[in-house]
Structure formats: structure tokens, C-alpha cells
């Protein structure tokens, strides 16, 4: 690998660490002009930055705004590189397709949005349906895009029961384990996740990425 | 002189209001309730038919501010005005809507049921620092559809104090209003001497949800007091700066008051909230953070400029146990709330980001409240001369001389707050003899005493019967034939 490209990869990682979408976009563009394979730009450049920030967050050295901005910078860079990948016919192998939604009757979404940002920064294809989503819509969407994972968020104890309803519905339709379910939100405990037969839960967005990777067998 | 805490200059308050009015126009307020949109459109407010974003002009808001009451009272069972919303009156009530309760023996956070709410009601009923009860925890042993009305039902049965409550849906708010009317004898009686106030939350940023706005309208029309609980989270669901967050809070309150007053001018409503910062490490909303208290003090100052009654959420902690963190966060923030002259300060008893309640913490928090109330009582001049009059010819330059003065006996109770046994001022010997307990250990004993000494209020038997049958009716509609048994009401 030429020194020049090595330097570019380092700058790419740094742009993610700095959470600078302008620079990550610019570097993505530059890599195309330089003829760097887009997949290399992602995996050897930008992803290194995402992983670094994720580790730093886990270690208590980085904070949520840095995590979110890194995710946004990653998204911006991938948006530039994705069409190139398609052109080459070598579409980036995604980690998997994920549906995210806050359950019906609940309008809280800070945590879910964070999880979405981190998942897409880590290579998942994320469809965030937003808040107050009924079971049939969520399941319908998952089938429509052939998602492997559904992430269900609930902040209220009065709405967390909806998570169970969706899982029961999926089981009734024999859609598991084709579709696996992650649950999250302030009142969600491991006990709850086990009780409602969810496939997993995590305390935070970084943990959710690890869980998602594990569930799709790419940990 | 009564001490007061203010964090904002008049000039900054004027700018907060000016920018809040700008926010009401741009980006505007998302109004997700059709009836609320109709009320606004009838006044010529422009609302995007797709996004439901309303641009609310200052003139309409100012009209609402003219019709809104500057003060009102909540009444106890006997019809006495016991909670004054207005001016710099300060009251405390236990926090609301907990979902777990600290088990004092196992230290587990138990899922709450009827027995837990009764425990909290019985303890708070006997602590004078709580001027009102709250529907403190959700009872998970009744169906979801009646969990809000059932809490109010229990508070009405087990307490004589005013009640801070709230509904979970637009349907149940009406059921709860009807319950209050039934209990008071008529809708007019319930309106004339309101026993309860309902918390109603907008959704940050700048959204009045279908449920929130719907509740505002129903409460306004019934003349039952509403309390806006705007919950901007600085750095996540609101600007990271305190001034930015207070400005968003102002806009959300102004929009709420406008909708409320359009539904029924003159109905009582409170400028309140549970503002908090957003913890950038844990993604949590710390209620015990000093910045949370600073946000509340600031928005209360804005409200007072407009002459509005005020409410906030302070006196709670994010700790999971009744420990040193619980004590310092609850005590400091209760003090900030009292010094800010906030009319109703909710949150006492609560742990774990308002998720968990504790009767023992209620007992300890009452001491913090007593300190805060003593503080705002201020330093008073009781005697003509400040000191010289205390030194007569019997003074012989010994410590203890002043204990012999009649005036000491006469005034010490006014000068000093006398704490309960939960505060330890014993000698080490006496403390050891009493079991070397910490504050939590002493609070556990106090709770046991209070539960033993509790006597349920004597209520009119017809009222009780009406209440029981109304609640049972709601329960049947929700699909259950009976309600959890209440030992104190075997006859029913």
C-alpha cells in the first residue's frame, strides 16, 4: 500500500473520531478520485475510527455527542462510497438489515436513534420507523425489506408490554428465528428480555451493536 | 427577610421570552391533537396540514396569559384550602408514577402493586412536610386501562390531603375527572374546590402530543387544574445550553397555556416541568444533578415574571439506595426548589431517575424539606434590640446563662427547627445503645411506626360506596370482575 493511501486511511479514521462529516465526505470523494477501492476506504479507513470511538466510549473516555457525531460522519462517508460500490457491482456486504421502532403508545426515541446511528456506522442497514409504531406495521416492514433483526424500544412500563406482543405475534407467524428481536429502553432488564423471549437486550448503544453482530453471527 | 435564589437577570428573562415567541412561529409547535388544532385554527393560526406544525402568534399567547388565573388553591377532604398555587408559596409532594419500590429489607426494587401505593399514602399522610399526596406509584396488579384511575381512587380513599395526579390517556382523564365529580357530589363542586391537579406533559422538542393536548382540553373544560410538566432534556431533546433549554421550556409552556385557555378561558393551569440535563456518558436524565435544579430555578423565574403559578420536579435522587448520594442530591435540590419559591415541588421519596419510590426516603426527605422551609423562613428580628437586651444584671459571664432566660423558652421553637428522630444528634453512647443505626435504619423504624399509627380518614359512607361502584364499573369494562382487596374497607 502506498504511503499516500495509508495516510488517507489515517485521515479517514481521524475524521470519524473528530465527528467531522464535511471532512469525511471530502476524504471519501478523494479516495474515489485516487482510485482506492471503496470497500477498502470503508473497512481500512473509516471503520477504524468508528471502532476507536466505540472502544473509547466503552472505556468512559468518549461521550455520547462524540459517539453520535462519529456515527453521522460515518454515514456521510458511506453515502458517498455506496454508489461507487454499486457501480463496481461489489455492493458492500452489510452486516444485516435491522428495523428499529419505538412501540405503540410510546413517543420516546433518543435511545433508539442512538442505537440506529451506531448500528449503521457499524455496517448494518438500518430502517428506523420512528415512534408509536403498532405491531403489524413493524412486522410488515420487516418482511417487506427482509430484515434479520427488529429492535424494539420502550421507555414506559405501560408500553414495554408491547414488546412482548410483537414477539408473540412473530412466534405465532413462525417468523423466528428468521427475524430476531432485540429489546431496549430504560425499564428493560435482562429478566424482562428473558421473560418475553426476546433474543437479547443491551444497556447502551455500543452494547446494542455487539449484540446485533452476535445475533447475525458476525461478532 | 426571606431569602430567594435567582439565576437570571431581568434582561435575560426578556430575551428568553422574546426568543420563545420566535420559536412559537419558527419552527412552530407540532400539535398532534385534532381538537387542539381546530381551536387554534379558529383563531386564525396557520397550521401545516401535513406536519401539523402550528405557528402561534404572540398576540394569541398574550390573550391566553390574560385569562389564566394567577393563583388558585387545592382543597383537602374537609374543604380547607391547603395548597396555594401562586406567588412564592412553597409546597412539597411525593414524586409520581414510580414503577418500583425499594424493599427496605432485601434492597430490591420490587414491582409496585396496590400494597406499595397504600404504604406510601399512609406514610405521606402523616408527615406534615407533604402538603399534598401524589399518585406515587403504578399498581401493576390491576389492568393497564385502569392503572391511572385506580391510583386516584386509592388516594381518595386513604388520604384527606390534596392529590397531584395524572392520566395516561385521553379516555381515562375523563374517567378521572368524572371520579372527582362523583366524589365531590357534582362537577361544580369538584371545580369549585378542586381536590386534585393533573400533570400533563408536552413532548420535547416543541410537541404537544395527541394525548397531552387532549388532556389539557378536557381538564380546561372541566375546570380541574392542570400542571404542565415540560421535560426538555438539555443536550438531547433540547439545546445543550441552559438558556436554550429554558427558552424551549418557555415556548412549550406558552403553547400549552394557549391551547388550554382556548378550550376554556380562566381555567387553572400551572407552569411546571421536570427539566433535566442529558448525561453524556450514560444517556440518562439525572434528576439529582445540580444543573437540573438550576434549569428549574431558571424556568420558575420566567414563570414568575408572567405571574404564573409554578411546579417542578426536585428532591429526588438517581441513586438506587437511600444512601449518601440520595441524601445530598435530594437535600440540595429541595433547597434550591424552596429558595426559588416554586409552588409545588414533586419528587420526594424517589430514587433511580424517578422510577423507584421509597417510604423510608420519604421520611428522610421530610427532614430536608423542613430544613429548606426553615431556610426560606429567613432570619427574623424577634426583639427590639438585637442583642443588648439579653444581657441583664444576672449575666455572670457563664455559658448556659441564656438557657435560664424566659425569652429563650419563648422563642427557641421559632428560631430552631426541631428535627425528628431520623436525624441523629445523640451522643455516641446513646447512638450505640439505640443500635448504631444509620439514617436509613432509623427511617425504617419510623416507617414502621407510621404504618402502625395510620388511621384511615373517616369519609362519608355514601361517598365511599359511590367511589367503589364507579371503580368497579371501570374495572369490569377493563375485563376484570374484581379489584384487589383493601383490608381497611372490608365492608365494601
Could you name the key traits of this structure?
heterodimer, A: 219 residues, alpha/beta, Rossmann fold, 2 domains, five-stranded parallel beta sheet, B: 492 residues, TIM Barrel, four-stranded mixed beta sheet, 43% helix
Helices and strands in order, then pairings?
The complex is a heterodimer of chains A (219) and B (492).
Chain A: H1 3-17, H2 21-33, H3 38-58, H4 64-87, E1 96-102, H5 110-121, E2 124-128, H6 135-145, E3 149-153, H7 157-172, E4 180-184, H8 190-195, E5 200-201, H9 205-215
Parallel strand pairs in A: 1-2, 1-3, 3-4, 4-5
Chain B: H1 10-25, E1 29-31, H2 34-42, E2 46-47, E3 53-55, H3 58-67, E4 72-75, E5 81-85, E6 91-94, E7 100-102, E8 109-111, H4 114-125, E9 133-134, H5 147-158, E10 163-165, H6 170-184, H7 187-192, E11 196-200, E12 207-208, H8 210-222, E13 226-228, E14 233-234, H9 242-263, E15 269-270, E16 276-277, H10 290-305, E17 311-313, H11 324-339, E18 344-348, E19 350-351, E20 356-357, H12 359-377, H13 406-415, H14 428-433, H15 439-453, H16 461-477
Parallel strand pairs in B: 1-12, 6-18, 7-20, 9-10, 10-11, 11-13, 13-15, 14-16, 17-18
Antiparallel strand pairs in B: 1-3, 2-3, 4-5, 7-8, 19-20
Please characterize this protein's 3D structure.
The complex is a heterodimer of chains A (219) and B (492). Chain A folds into 2 domains: 3-87, Methyltransferase, Methionine Synthase (B12-binding Domains), Chain A, domain 1, CATH 1.10.1240.10; 96-215, Cobalamin-binding domain (Rossmann fold). Helices cover 59% and strands 11% of the residues of chain A. Chain A has 9 helices and 5 strands, in the order H-H-H-H-E-H-E-H-E-H-E-H-E-H. Chain A has a 5-stranded parallel beta sheet, sandwiched between helices. The mean pLDDT of chain A is 91. In chain B, the strands form 6 sheets. Chain B has a 5-stranded parallel beta sheet. A 4-stranded mixed beta sheet of chain B has the order 2-3-1-12. Chain B is globular and about 85 Å long. The N and C termini of chain B lie far apart (52 Å). The A-B interface holds A 60, 63-65, 107, 110-111, 114, 157-158, 161, 186-187, 204-205 and B 99, 138, 140, 144, 147, 168, 203, 207, 209, 233, 235-237, 278, 280-283, 353, 355.
